[in-house]
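Action item from last week, closing it out:
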Amino acid sequence: MTALRCLSVEPGRSRLVEGAQSELSAHFDLFEAQAARTPDAVALVFGKGNLTYRELNNKANVLAGQLRDKGVGPEVIV
């Protein structure tokens, strides 16, 4: 994945450089498309375990929902 450059907004905070957010969104779109095409293919290997695209996508969606429920959204630092 491409490294994201950050600009300092105020001490202790940073903001994504304009354009980086759309690039990041494109990566998410590519991942979602891959998960739809090959849901049972291995997407992530760690130690002796692995996750399929379906499992990883489901976990990511659950986490995103939990973060939204806690008020996290665009421009909110986690």
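Closing note: The longest strand covers residues 6-10.
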